[in-house]
Design goal:
Elements lengths: L1 H16 L2 E8 L2 E8 L4 E6 L5 E7 L2 E2 L8 H6 L10 E2 L5 E2 L3 E4 L2 E4 L15 E2 L10 E7 L4 E7 L5 H4 L6 E10 L2 E10 L5 E3 L2 E2 L2 E2 L10 E3 L2 E7 L5 E7 L6 E2 L5 E8 L7 E7 L2 E7 L5 E6 L6 E6 L5 H6 L7 E3 L4 E11 L2
Antiparallel strand pairs: 1-2, 2-3, 3-4, 4-5, 6-16, 7-10, 8-9, 11-12, 12-13, 13-14, 14-28, 15-27, 17-26, 18-21, 18-23, 19-20, 19-22, 22-25, 23-24, 24-28, 25-26
């Protein structure tokens, strides 16, 4: 009798465990990781060797991420693959002005000759050094009855061309987790150096609502303050009130704006969203993401809600006494935070 009971029970366990899967595969010769939720028809695809970037978030075969490349090989082998999907911006996000940065009352200058950073003619270095990095190492791919996840690591301290332009020994660990109809992106920064390191990183996710023109979308900006910038889109340190309505039509409204003083729930989370009819995409910021850059330029079919730890050029503005919210991670300590992408109606 016991043997027959086990036979009856085991299929139910197998079915429950098969909801989530995580697997390594190749796409046009490029290694990728696929996380799948069979019950909800969701698949997330990540390419570790190009910035550990998620490039697909498919719900019933509709990709909610903007990714215009013909195929992964063309994207990865491009000299300038550009931004799309969910790029990671580190060690700094957005713009640093003046050809370098201040930390702990020391001035560090960028060296463009090493090829790890580009400084424009007006002294702007944008989006760090890792958006297309091939240096990520996959350290775990697994699934269970609750989620599918992949963890990758980038030991920044190993690479002289990186350290020369951001001289703090540290490493990153990033985990993508697909669970219960949402994608969590968790990032840990371990400071291995002898001095406190500024934390001014971020992400630049590109979202689209398939088959619906952007003119029919509305956006919710969960922030009380707007970050003022100069003609180079570098923050001045001045903040003004965010007077946007609760729902902003994207028919005529364009964005390339920073926001702070985020509106948070009891758990410290702030939720930005884009909606068209019954379809919506939400980006939920954890408490340590203090700034949102919203980007919806003319002639494009996407909107970006960018989780940032600091305003543009915050590391320099803090030194100048114009920004008081700069985060740091102490020697030997770790910084960790997440954001979530949730979706409905697809």
């Amino acid at each position: 009798m016991t043997r027959y009971l086990l036979l009856l029970i085991m299929p139910a366990v197998t079915l429950a465990a098969s909801r989530y899967t995580a697997e390594k595969a190749t796409d046009h010769g490029v290694e990728v990781i696929h996380l799948k939720d069979a019950n909800l028809g969701v698949e997330v695809s990540i390419v570790p060797s190009s910035g550990n970037r998620a490039y697909e978030l498919k719900v019933h075969e509709k990709n909610l991420l903007y990714f215009p490349a013909q195929d992964l090989a063309a994207f990865k082998n491009s000299r300038r693959p550009g931004l799309n999907g969910i790029p990671f911006l580190a060690p700094w996000a957005n713009r640093i002005s003046g050809g370098g940065f201040w930390a702990d009352n020391k001035r560090y200058l960028f060296n463009s000759d090493l090829g790890s950073v580009h400084v424009s003619s007006d002294g702007i270095a944008i989006h760090g050094m890792l958006t297309a990095s091939r240096l990520w190492e996959v350290v775990g791919v697994s699934a269970d009855e609750k989620s599918a996840h992949v963890t990758s690591r980038l030991p920044f301290w190993k690479y002289p061309e990186l350290m020369a332009n951001w001289p703090f020994a540290h490493e990153y660990e990033m985990t993508y987790t697909l669970a219960d109809g949402s994608l969590q992106v968790s990032t840990t920064v371990k400071n291995l150096s002898a001095e406190a390191m500024p934390v001014v990183l971020g992400f630049h996710p590109y979202f689209n609502i398939p088959n619906v023109p952007r003119a029919e979308w509305t956006a919710h900006i969960a922030a009380r303050k707007h970050v003022e910038t100069d003609s180079r889109l570098v923050a001045t340190g001045q903040l003004t009130a965010n007077n946007l309505p609760n729902q902003v039509s994207l028919k005529n409204h364009l964005f390339d704006d920073g926001f702070t003083d985020l509106v948070r729930d009891n758990d410290g989370h702030a939720t930005f969203s884009v909606q068209a009819g019954d379809k919506s995409i939400q980006v939920v910021y954890g408490p340590k993401y203090q700034v949102a850059v919203v980007y919806a330029p003319p002639g494009q079919s996407y909107i970006c809600f960018e989780p940032m730890t600091a305003i543009t050029d915050g590391v320099n503005l803090a030194h100048d006494g114009k920004y008081s919210e700069l985060e740091t991670v102490a020697p030997g300590a770790a910084w960790q935070e997440s954001f979530w992408v949730r979706f409905r109606g697809f």
